[in-house]
Design goal:
Elements: H1 2-20, E1 24-27, E2 31-32, E3 39-43, E4 46-49, E5 53-54, E6 68-72, E7 75-83, H2 94-99, E8 101-108, E9 133-135, E10 146-149, E11 161-167, H3 181-189, E12 193-199, E13 206-207, E14 214-215, E15 226-230, E16 235-244, E17 247-255, E18 265-266, E19 275-276, E20 281-284, E21 287-293, E22 296-299, E23 305-308, E24 311-313, E25 350-351, E26 356-360, E27 366-370, E28 375-379, E29 384-388, E30 391-393, E31 397-416, E32 436-441, E33 458-475
Parallel strand pairs: 1-30
Antiparallel strand pairs: 2-33, 3-29, 4-28, 5-27, 6-7, 7-8, 8-9, 10-11, 11-12, 12-13, 12-14, 15-16, 16-17, 17-18, 19-22, 20-21, 21-24, 22-23, 25-26, 26-27, 28-33, 29-33, 31-32, 31-33
Length: 476
C-alpha cells in the first residue's frame, strides 16, 4: 500500500510539472521582462529596474493636471487642463471651480522639445487670448478630459479621436457645498460619471451621449481615467480611479462600442496602505499586448508627496505585476517635485527617436528612456545564466534589444522542452554578441535561421556577463 501511495504521489507530481511547463506561445510578438511571463531560471543574473533620465535644459512646456500626449503622424498632440481664472480652488466654491475649467491644446513637431499653442478660434474666452481651448463649458469633464486615437478599424472617420472625462458629486452633506449648491448643479449639468466624446480632427469635440456612459456609482473619477482600443482584446478598455476601503485604487471596464461598458473589475495593484492616484495604463506602442502603467503613488498623510511607480498588466487580467515596489521616478532634486501632488506622468509614453521614448511630467519635466528599457535581465562582472520558460514562436530569426560593456558578452542557446541543446543552435555555436542595439540578430556560426524550430516547444538559454537584455522577438 505504501508503494502504491508513493507511486500515485509521483504520478501526481509529474502531472503537475507537465501542467506547469505548458509552453507560452509568443508567436512573433515582442516580449519585455515587465512581468513573469517568460522568466524561468535566473542563475547569477537578476532583473534590473532602469530609471529614465531627466533632460536638464529644455524650453518651457505648457502643462496642466491630467495631461495626455498623443503621437499623431509627425507631431505630438498635448491636451491638458486649464482654468479661465487661475487660482479659483474648490474651497472657494466647488461648482465655480469646475465650471471654471477648460481643456487646452498644444503641439510639437520636434519630438517634444518645443511646443506651440495654436489660436484655434473655437472658444472665444477673453481670459484666454491664446485661443488654444478645445473644450469648454463641459462641467466635470474638463477636470480630466483624456483623449486617444481610436485604432479600431471599424471606427468612423468622424470619431477617429475619442475621449472620456467626468467626475462625481460629493455626498450631500459635504461641508464645502453652499446651501442648495449640489441640487442646483445637478439640475444644470446633469449626473456625474464618465462622459464619452468624439472628434474627427482631435480639436472639435462633441458628446456621444446625453448621459454618462460609466455611472457615478462605480468610481470616484477625480483623476485621469484613460481609455483605448485594445488590438489584443478587440474591445475598448478603460482604467479608472475608485476608492477601495479608503485607498485610492484602480478599476477596469471594457466595451464593444464605447457607450455600453462592462461591470468593473477591481485591479489588484496596491501594496498595503498604498494610494495609487492615477493609473496611466496604456498599451506599450512596441508591444500592444502589454499594458504599461505609470501610476502616481500618493503619500496621503505625508504632505501629499507623490512619485511614480512602474507596473504592467496583460489583456483581460485583473491584476498588475510589479517586479519592483520602489519608485520608478523620484520627486528629484530641489523643492519643485516635493510639493502637494507635484508629480504626474502624462498619459502615454511616446517614441521620440530611433532608440528612445519620452515621458512628460506635470510641471514641465521631460524624461528619456531606452526603447523597451523599463526592466532588463542583467548580468554583472561574473558570468550568469537566464533560461526562459518553455515557449513556442513563429518566425525565422531571433532579435534582441541588448547592451553590453566592452568586456561583456551574450551567448544564446536554443533548447528543446527537456533542456537539451538543439542541433546547430547550441551555446558553443552562438556567435558572441557584443555592443548596444535596439534590434540585434542572433546568429549561430553565421546563420540566424531558426525556422526549423518554429511552432515547437523550446527554451532560450542566455549565458552573459556585464550585459542587459531588454526584450526579445522572433521575426520573419
Amino acid at each position: 500500500m505504501n508503494y502504491f501511495r508513493i507511486l500515485l504521489s509521483c504520478l501526481l507530481l509529474m502531472g503537475m510539472g507537465l501542467a506547469a511547463a505548458e509552453p507560452v506561445d509568443i508567436g512573433s510578438r515582442r516580449e519585455l521582462f515587465v512581468d513573469d511571463l517568460l522568466i524561468g531560471k535566473l542563475d547569477g543574473t537578476r532583473l534590473k529596474l532602469h530609471h529614465p533620465h531627466k533632460l536638464r535644459r529644455v524650453p518651457p512646456r505648457p502643462f496642466g493636471h491630467y495631461a495626455t500626449v498623443l503621437q499623431d503622424g509627425g507631431k505630438l498632440r498635448l491636451y491638458y487642463r486649464g482654468d479661465k481664472i487661475p487660482g479659483v480652488h474648490w474651497r472657494n466654491g466647488w461648482g465655480r471651480y469646475h465650471e471654471n475649467e477648460v481643456t487646452l491644446y498644444a503641439e510639437s513637431r520636434d519630438q517634444g522639445i518645443t511646443w506651440t499653442e495654436p489660436n484655434l478660434g473655437l472658444y472665444p474666452i477673453k481670459e484666454m487670448p491664446k485661443g488654444n481651448v478645445v473644450l469648454a463649458d463641459a462641467f466635470l469633464v474638463n477636470h480630466n478630459f483624456t483623449p486617444f486615437i481610436d485604432t479600431n478599424p471599424k471606427a468612423p472617420a468622424n470619431a477617429r479621436y475619442k475621449a472620456l472625462g467626468g467626475g462625481r458629486y460629493n455626498a450631500p452633506n459635504w461641508p464645502i457645498y453652499k446651501p442648495g449648491e449640489r441640487e442646483a448643479l445637478l439640475k444644470k449639468h446633469g449626473p456625474g460619471g464618465l462622459r464619452a466624446y468624439a472628434s474627427a480632427d482631435g480639436l472639435r469635440w462633441r458628446p456621444l451621449a446625453k448621459e454618462p456612459v460609466i455611472a457615478e456609482s462605480l468610481g470616484s473619477f477625480d483623476s485621469q481615467n484613460g481609455a483605448f482600443w485594445s488590438e489584443a482584446e478587440q474591445l475598448y478598455v478603460c482604467y479608472f480611479r475608485w476608492f477601495d476601503k479608503g485607498r485610492r485604487a484602480i478599476r477596469r471596464v471594457t466595451s464593444k462600442d464605447f457607450l455600453n461598458w462592462s461591470e468593473p473589475v477591481n485591479m489588484q495593484a496596491n501594496e498595503p496602505g498604498e494610494h495609487l492616484y492615477t493609473s496611466v495604463t496604456q498599451p506599450y506602442f512596441r508591444a500592444p499586448h502589454i499594458y504599461i502603467a505609470l501610476p502616481t503613488r500618493f503619500q496621503a498623510r505625508k504632505g501629499a508627496i507623490t512619485d511614480i511607480v512602474l507596473m504592467a498588466t496583460r489583456p483581460g487580467s485583473g491584476r498588475y505585476h510589479r517586479h519592483f515596489k520602489q519608485a520608478f521616478i523620484r520627486p528629484g532634486l530641489g523643492p519643485a517635485g516635493w510639493g502637494n501632488r507635484a508629480n504626474y506622468i502624462t498619459l502615454n509614453a511616446v517614441q521620440t527617436s530611433p532608440t528612445e521614448m519620452s515621458l512628460f511630467m506635470y510641471g514641465g519635466g521631460h524624461y528619456k528612456l531606452r526603447l523597451d528599457g523599463f526592466i532588463s535581465v542583467h548580468a554583472g562582472f561574473a558570468k550568469g545564466e537566464f533560461v526562459t520558460k518553455p515557449l513556442k514562436f513563429s518566425g525565422n530569426k531571433l532579435e534582441l534589444n541588448y547592451s553590453t560593456a566592452g568586456a561583456g558578452e551574450i551567448r544564446v542557446e536554443l533548447q528543446d522542452a527537456t533542456g537539451r541543446p538543439l542541433p546547430g543552435c547550441a551555446l558553443a555555436d552562438c556567435d558572441p554578441i557584443k555592443g548596444d542595439t535596439i534590434s540585434g540578430r542572433v546568429t549561430w556560426k553565421g546563420s540566424s535561421d531558426v525556422s526549423p524550430h518554429a511552432g515547437k516547444t523550446v527554451r532560450l538559454r542566455f549565458v552573459m556577463n556585464e550585459a542587459d537584455i531588454f526584450s526579445l522577438k522572433f521575426d520573419k
